[in-house]
Amino acid sequence: MNPFSLHERSLNPAALLEGLRHPACGGYVTFEGAVRDHNAGRSVRRLEYEAFAPLALREGERILTEACVRFGIERACCAHRIGALQVGELAVWVGVAAAHRGEAFDACRYIIDHIKHRVPIWKKEYYDDGDSGWVNCEACAAAPPTAADSQRALSAHRHD
Amino acid sequence: MSAAQLYGLVLAGGHSKRMQRDKAALEYAGKPQLVRAMELIAPLVERAFVSVRPDQQQDAQRAVYDTVVDLTPDLGPLAGIQAALRAQPARAWLVLACDLPFLSAPTLRHLLAHRAAARQATAYRSRFDGLPEPLCAIYEPSARDALEHWIEQGNRCPRVWLSSADVELLELPEPRALDNINTAQEYAAAIAALGAPGAADAVIDRPRRLKVRYFALLREQAGRGSEAVQTCARTPQELYEQLQRERGLTLAPQFLRVAVNDEFGDWQQALADGDTVAFLPPVAGG
Fold first, then answer.
1. Could A122 and B130 be called an inter-chain contact, meaning their C-beta atoms sit closer than 8 Å?
2. According to the model, what pLDDT value does residue A89 have?
3. How many domains does chain B have?
4. Residues B159, B211: one domain?
5. Structural domain for A108, as ranges
6. Residues of A with CB below 8 A from B262's CB?
7. Are B212 and B160 in the same domain?
8. Are residues B12 and B132 in the same domain?
9. What is the mean pLDDT of residues B17-26?
10. Among A52, A111, B190, B221, which has the highest number of CB atoms less than 10 A from its own CB?
């Protein structure tokens, strides 16, 4: 099993945890991220995840390797859903196996935090009111250059 | 009022101080850029002229063309524009710097097609700072008095004049078309970007074939998950600027990451024929 994987169908946490077992490990920490029925004050009906698969797999495995090196854990694994998900469904599963609980907790937290910020996976929320939106994208619209921008460029314009 | 007849002026009167050799004679695809510029402009105008300083009138490369001689020393490119507008006050002038190796006929035709003859000038907006580009622009007869007045006040920068003038400002159809060449390093880079010297003239316009991938909001805005494009864009940044216009993409590049051939890349890296470029909106996994 690849340590980082993308899945179009439901995740199976029990099977994922079994794949993590190791005789040298006394501490197992898992994180389960599920689809919430609300976000930023809006009622969410369902989600869609989209991934840039080749790069998502590479970046996901890089994060897991980093966690192993950084925290000295034995094994790490992450499974992420793509496609359409309903409220309550499992979207992401992270599991860490280590000799002791301390580094297992820390590594698990590190992995899920970095997965959220680095792996090219996108989430579209469909709201109860019929609206929808891509999380973290909608506020990033480009503004055309304003008159003030051009004025600044003009004052900065110099000759040699 | 009908539009004034259009004459063409190629500016080749500079001192080429930073290049330390005559820029007009620099060759791309085996052709001096003065020749290339004259060939580009001639089919589009009634008559084409080369702008020269008084001491360049006997220069062999320039003397084969009709010339307009600068009247005011130390005025830079503005001297050429001033001399042309004085010499033919009833004509509009398409003014072109000779050191624009990436400029192609389509970009010039686009400028002519969108000429606003009732205004003082028609120019492209710089992709670097949003200001008008004065050295690939049309100056109407109505610009003459305002420009003379501006020069009398001790000014010499045509960009600054255009910024305050009544200008029709156009977006560049090819983002890098007006990138110019001032140093030996830039010349070397342009030669590399345009292919080996001696290649067919078409190399100037030959685009790269790239595959572009879109995700999430960008995919929806582009109306497709991927496409093959032929482009003159040299870097992911130039490619995104072009696609933003063509596909109506609203995400500002500072919020995006770029991937080239399935690995994170750099906005400024050189793109090669056959590359796959992906633009990655802000992610939201987990």
1. no
2. 97
3. 2
4. no
5. 4-156
6. 54-55, 58
7. no
8. yes
9. 63
10. A111
Residues of A in contact with B18 (CB under 8 A): 160
* CATH number (domain holding residue B273): 3.10.20.30
Tell me, what CATH number does B123's domain have?
3.90.550.10
Mutate to test the interface with A, among B217, B224, B264 (most CBs of A within 10 A): B217
Residue of chain B whose alpha carbon sits nearest to that of A117: B283
Rounded to whole angstroms, what are the CA distances from B147 to A37, B40, B152, B159, B160? 64, 26, 9, 11, 11
Higher pLDDT, A64 or A141: A64
B15 and B157 in one domain?
yes
What is the percentage of chain B residues whose pLDDT exceeds 90?
Answer: 55
For residues B47 and B111, state if they share a domain: yes
Contact B251 A119 (CB under 8 A): no
H/E segment holding residue B211 = strand B208-214
CA separation for the pair A115, A5 (Å, rounded): 12
* Residue after which a domain boundary falls, among B111, B142, B170: B170
Can you give the pLDDT at residue A142?
Answer: 59
Q: Mark which of B109, B144, B170 sits at the end of a domain.
A: B170
- CB within 8 Å of B50: residues ≥ 6 apart: B9, B10, B12, B34, B38, B62, B65, B66, B67, B68
Put simply, the answer to whether B264 touches A55 (Cβ < 8 Å) is yes
> What are the beta bridge partners of residue B63?
none
How does pLDDT run across B129-164, given as a tens digit for each residue?
788 999 999 999 999 999 999 899 888 888 888 988
Contact B282 A137 (CB under 8 A): yes
Domain with B251 in it? 207-280
DSSP SS3 for B246: helix
Same domain, B94 and B143: yes
- A-proximal residues of B, 90-109, CB under 8 Å: none
Look-up of token digits 């970046």? A59
Domain holding A58: CATH number?
3.90.1170.40
Domain tally, chain A: 1
Q: Which tokens hold the place of A99?
A: 């000799």
Distance CA B200, CA B194 (A): 10
Give the residue numbers in A contacting B (CB under 8 Å), as ranges.
Answer: 33, 49-52, 54-56, 58-59, 80, 91-92, 112, 115-124, 134-138, 140-143, 145, 149-150, 153-154, 156-157, 159-160
- Residues B283, A117: C-beta atoms closer than 8 Å: yes
